[in-house]
Amino acid sequence: MPDLEDLHARVASCTDCALYKSAINAVPGEGSPNAELMFIGEGPGAQEDAQGRPFVGPAGQVLNQLLASIGLKREDVYIANMVKHRPPDNRDPFPGEIQACAKYLEEQIKLINPKVVIPLGRHALAKWFPKDTISKVHGRPRRVGELTLFPQYHPAAALHNPAIRPALEHDFQEMGKLLRQEDIPAEPETPEESGGQQLSMF
Ligand code: URA
What we know:
With 202 residues, the chain is of the alpha/beta class. It contains ten helices and seven strands. It has a four-stranded mixed sheet with strand order 1-3-2-4. Strands 6-5-7 form a three-stranded mixed sheet, with no helix packed on it. It is globular and about 40 Å long.
């Protein structure tokens, strides 16, 4: 898809925040331009930075296994991050960095137009639901504007705390079932409840 390639090229040369200075590569995102599922992580780690590809390290292996458990491959979905350059020493992205990068994520969502967007972990969750915690809202489809969101634990959380893995596996199974439905039942979300960003399309 030319628009997606153009976006990836713009991300690769982006200097809108300071993260590009310490990064080796930009990590714009990858996958099918026709994906029904779009996963949004936090930001690239060391291996992602080295390869310029999202979720290729240990968390990526967990994601691959979870995808396989519902009969999907990476190529079937689209994988992106809140910030497209690696934060130094894997620190949390700063709000200003997330803000500077938001335009790329919003464009990716518009271009891919997935059936379900899956915020992985608290940083991605906070874009839409800043008042919620992932432990409370994971695995529940919710609607914001035209988007259907299905928040899930970050796969890295299952590496740090194996007790989270069954919840991730369960949520993936539920998501797989939802995907087969024509209309996905989802809780409506009001701006008052969520406090999330209310963009015209989202
Ligand atoms: N963690 C993320 O949030 N994103 C990646 O791309 C890799 C690990």
